[in-house]
Design a protein that fits this description.
Helices cover 44% and strands 13% of the residues. The chain has 19 helices and 14 strands. The protein is elongated.
Amino acid sequence: MPSLRQKLREYVSGCFTGIWVETQEPHEAATDIQALCQEESWQFARWDIDQGLRIAGQAVEDGQDPLSAVKAVAAMGEDTSILVLDNFHRFLSSAEIIQALVSQLHAGKQTRSIVVVLAPVLELPPELEKMFVAIEHALPSREHLREIAKAIGVEDGELPEERQLEQVLDAASGLTRAEAESAFSLSLVRHGKITPETTWELKSQTLKKSGLMEVYEGDSRFDDLGGLIALKSFAKRALTRSNDRVRARGVMLLSPPGCGKSQICKALGNETGRPVILLDVGSLMGSLVGQTESRTRQALKIIDAMGKSVVLLDECDKAFGSATSGNGDSGVSSRMFGTFLTWLNDRESDSFVVCTANDVQKLPPEFARAERFDSVFFVDLPGSEQRELIWNQYIEAYQLDPEQPKPKDDSWTGAEIKACCRLAALLDVPLKQAAQNVVPVAHTAQESIDSLRSWASGRCIDAQKGGIYKFIKPKSKSRRKIKADPSLN
């Protein structure tokens, strides 16, 4: 990918008078632009609301006014000149400033004066949309992060061995240069060397601050989940063998509620050494026009920058179920769904996406097509062997008597077994008595579960046994016909 400096050289040489640089690191971007100006003997000026206008490093009197800064670039000389405006998107609600920019961008073709805006978002008023070209200032690459780590870990033992260094770089992917430096420095203070654990801690805080997603920090493992043998084997093998040549894409999990879909995704991250990113579609919704689409693109961009990860999109049927209808939201759901579909299909990052759903018929059919996911699994209610494993797991976890009789658990989910054990421990009663407070979802939603099973039959992979899932609907009991008594006629 071309660097920011290379892109700018091309656009300035082509006399693009308006260049918008979307960046999370304005200082780094401005340093690159200034270095380019020195290489090419271009004049360099920079403006921000705090320092005002500085031309060739010298402050200009009364240079704090943004309108004056735009007009000042015209008087910088006949040679190519670059004016960098920091966070100027905050001032584009003024009609005077917009008009001044329009005039300057037109005049800049003759004077070779270029206006470069540095901002964390791309927000252009309609008057300027056709007059600016947009460039993305990419976050540091692995090689750049490696250089930062080597510059900080200069003493013996501070820089980890190559294998652990790769884990550190995995953890640092998606951080800015300043954030990476802070994480590495904090590692040295705590442990005397750069560690991936401290880097992940700082990265988790960064994701929380964004408000778009968070990192799961639990310690779930496959051993904590009974059954689902085929799904566990497939997902773990796919992620273990994923590389630059051939990458795993993800799985879609369908099941009735409480069967362990979300939990197995969280455990998968710990089994494969990847972070689990919890993406909540509700957190992407914004109140302003265009904000939802912008937040969605920003979240997907962050995921791509993070490198190796497991991304959990839970209850996607509820998140995207209205995408085809709109439901009076002016098409926001449809546009957000379209952005997500495109990303699922075209992404090049090593992110393994797990989508869960309880009612697949609410989703548009194109959602689960080939190459968006590696496979679609159906997680059925646990069988007798699975239920026995789940009982033993939670009886041990809640320190209950393992010899006591268990309640009748036909059609119980793992969540219901856990609830029964928790209530038995909480109320200090036997399991059979605690079971009186548990109403299985197979009874309360039998029709919807049978409908889901019927849909999955022949369309999904069996998460327990592997192969195509087959559902054999039990025959309904026929009513006994009573012959009429002829003597009554």
